[in-house]
Write a structure and sequence with these properties.
This protein is α+β, with helices and mostly antiparallel strands. It folds into 2 domains: about 1-65; about 70-160 and about 175-408, phage-related protein like fold, CATH 3.90.1690. It is about 40% helix and about 20% strand. It contains 11 helices and 17 strands. It has helices at about 1-70, 80-90, 110, 120-135, 135-140, 200-205, 210-230, 275-285, 290, 300-305, 355-360; strands at about 115, 140-145, 150-155, 180-185, 190-195, 195-200, 245, 260-265, 295-300, 320, 330, 335-340, 350-355, 360-365, 370-375, 380-395, 400-405. The strands form 3 sheets. Strands 7-8-17-13-9-12-11-10 form an 8-stranded mixed β-sheet. Helix 4 (about 120-135) crosses helix 7 (about 210-230). The chain is elongated and about 145 Å long. The relative contact order is 0.15.
C-alpha cells in the first residue's frame, strides 16, 4: 500500500510542477501579447499623426497656390524661415522654392528663369512700409487681387421712384427708371527694383538680408506707385488721377470719368488776393456732401505755403496750425496732406486737389512678388531683380475736385 501511495504522491508532485511551469509560461505569453498590442496601438497612432500632417501640409500648399494666383505654388515658406531662405538664395543661388508655373501672359517665364516667389508676409510688409515712405498710399483705397483682369463697376444712378396710392392703376404701379452702370478697366504695370547686396555683407552672419531687401524695395515701389497715382499714363502703369479728363461742368451734367475743375481765375497763378477764399470755398461747395465728410486737401509744398497765407476779408488766416502730434493742419476746416508729385503752379496745371481719395482712387496690389538673383552684373555685389505688379485708376470721379491754373 505504501508503494502505491508513493507513486500517487510522485504523480501529484509532477503534475503540480508541470502546472506551475505552464502557468508561468502563460503569464509570460500574456505579457508579451500585451506589449505587442501596445506597440501596435502606438504605431497606429503615429501613422494617423503622419497622415494628418500630410493632409494639413497639402491644404496649406493649396491655400498658398490660390492666394498667390499661381498654379503649382511652391513649398511653404513661413515668416520664421523666410530670412534664412532668402540669405541662402542670395548667397548660393540654390532655390528649393522655384516657381514652376504661373497664370497670365508671362506663364512659365519666372519658373524658367529660376525665380523666387516670396511669402505673403513680404508682400504685406512691402505695402505697410510703402505707406510710411509715401503717405499718399495710405490716402487711397488699396486692395489685393490675384488677377490683373480687374473691372470696376460704378453705379451711375438713375434709379427711379414714384408716389402711388394703395391700388395703383388697374392694380399696377407705373414703371420707374432703371439704374445705369459704367465699367472701368484697371490698367496694370510691373514695377521693378534691383537692390544690391555686397559679398562682405553676406559674410556677416548678423547682417539682416531680409530687412535690407524689404526696405529698399518698399522705398522704390512706394515712390513709383505714389507718382503713378497722380501722374500715371495708364499705359503699362496705373492711370493717374490728374491724367483723367477734366471739365468745368457740374456732377449732374459732366460725363462719367471726367473730373471737375475750378479755375484759379488767373492764367498762371493761384487765386488773386481779393478772391483767395472764394475760389477755395467754391472747391469745397462743389464737392457732394457725401464725400465732404472725409475730404482733404492735397498739394505740393509750394502750394501749401501759399495756402498758409490766405486770409479772409477781416485779415484772419484760413489756415489752422495743428498743435497735436500726428494730426495734420487744416485749411477751411479740412486736413492738408503734402504730395510732391502734384505739379506746382504753372499755366494750365492742376496744382490743388480736394476730395475723398478713398472713394476717388483705387490701387490694386497683385499678390505675389518675384525675385531673380543676378551675381554677374557687378563684381562686388549680388543684385536681386525684384518685380511686382500694381494697377490703379480713378474709381469715382465725383469724389474729388481739382484747381486748374487758368483764367476760366
Amino acid at each position: 500500500m505504501s508503494d502505491e501511495t508513493d507513486k500517487t504522491d510522485a504523480v501529484v508532485s509532477a503534475f503540480e510542477e508541470f502546472k506551475s511551469t505552464y502557468d508561468a509560461k502563460l503569464e509570460e505569453t500574456g505579457q508579451a501579447i500585451t506589449t505587442l498590442t501596445d506597440a501596435v496601438n502606438n504605431l497606429t497612432a503615429a501613422v494617423s499623426n503622419v497622415e494628418e500632417t500630410v493632409d494639413t501640409v497639402a491644404e496649406e500648399q493649396k491655400s498658398i497656390s490660390v492666394k498667390s494666383g499661381r498654379i503649382g505654388a511652391p513649398a511653404i515658406i513661413t515668416k520664421s524661415n523666410w530670412g534664412l531662405e532668402l540669405r541662402n538664395y542670395v548667397a548660393t543661388g540654390l532655390n528649393t522654392r522655384a516657381v514652376t508655373t504661373q497664370t497670365g501672359a508671362n506663364a512659365g517665364v519666372i519658373g524658367a528663369a529660376g525665380g523666387y516667389l516670396v511669402p505673403e508676409e513680404f508682400d504685406k510688409n512691402l505695402i505697410t512700409l510703402a505707406q510710411d515712405v509715401a503717405p499718399l498710399l495710405a490716402e487711397v483705397d488699396v486692395q489685393s487681387t490675384s488677377t490683373p483682369d480687374v473691372k470696376i463697376h460704378v453705379d451711375l444712378g438713375g434709379t427711379g421712384s414714384s408716389w402711388v396710392d394703395e391700388t395703383g392703376t388697374n392694380g399696377l404701379y407705373d414703371p420707374t427708371n432703371t439704374p445705369s452702370f459704367a465699367e472701368v478697366s484697371v490698367p496694370f504695370g510691373t514695377l521693378f527694383a534691383k537692390p544690391l547686396i555686397s559679398h562682405y555683407a553676406l559674410n556677416d552672419a548678423y547682417f539682416d538680408v531680409e530687412a535690407l531687401v524689404t526696405d529698399r524695395v518698399a522705398t522704390k515701389f512706394a515712390k513709383e506707385v505714389a507718382s503713378s497715382i497722380i501722374n500715371g499714363t495708364g499705359v503699362n502703369q496705373p492711370k493717374g488721377l490728374l491724367t483723367h479728363t477734366t471739365a468745368a461742368t457740374a456732377d449732374s451734367v459732366r460725363a462719367f470719368g471726367t473730373i471737375q475743375y475750378i479755375a484759379s481765375g488767373q492764367a498762371a497763378a493761384l487765386p488773386a488776393a481779393n478772391t483767395y477764399a472764394n475760389k477755395y470755398i467754391d472747391m469745397v461747395t462743389a464737392l457732394n456732401p457725401i464725400y465732404r465728410a472725409n475730404a482733404k486737401w492735397y498739394a505740393p509744398r509750394s502750394v501749401v505755403g501759399e495756402l498758409r497765407k490766405v486770409q479772409d476779408a477781416n485779415g484772419n488766416y484760413m489756415w489752422q496750425q495743428s498743435l497735436v502730434l500726428g494730426q495734420p493742419s487744416s485749411f477751411l476746416g479740412f486736413p492738408v496732406v503734402e504730395v510732391e508729385d502734384i505739379p506746382g503752379v504753372a499755366a494750365g496745371s492742376l496744382s490743388l486737389i480736394f476730395g475723398d481719395l478713398k472713394q476717388a482712387y483705387r490701387v490694386y496690389d497683385l499678390v505675389g512678388t518675384t525675385m531673380l538673383r543676378d551675381p554677374y552684373s557687378y563684381d562686388a555685389y549680388i543684385a536681386l531683380k525684384t518685380s511686382k505688379r500694381f494697377g490703379g485708376t480713378g474709381a469715382n470721379t465725383e469724389a474729388v475736385k481739382v484747381m486748374k491754373i487758368a483764367a476760366s
